[in-house]
Amino acid sequence: MKNILVTGGAGFIGSNFIRYLFNDTDFKGRIVNYDKLTYAGNLANLSDIAEKYQGKRYFFIKGDICDANKVSNTFKKFNIDTIVHFAAESHVDRSILGPEYFIKTNIEGTFTLLKSALNFWKNDKGFRFHHVSTDEVYGSLGARGYFYENTPYDPRSPYSSSKASSDHLVRAYHHTYGLPMTISNCSNNYGPYQFPEKLIPLMILNALEGKNLPVYGDGKNVRDWLYVKDHCSAIWTILEKGKNGETYNIGGECEKKNIEIVKKVCSILEEEKPSSLNPVLDGKKYSDLITFVKDRPGHDRRYAINCDKIKKELGWKQSFDFDLALRQTIRWYIENTDWVKSVKDGSYRKWLSKNYSLR
Ligand code: NAD
Ligand code: DAU
Question: What CATH number has the domain spanning 3-190+228-253+303-320+344-355?
Answer without folding.
Answer: 3.40.50.720
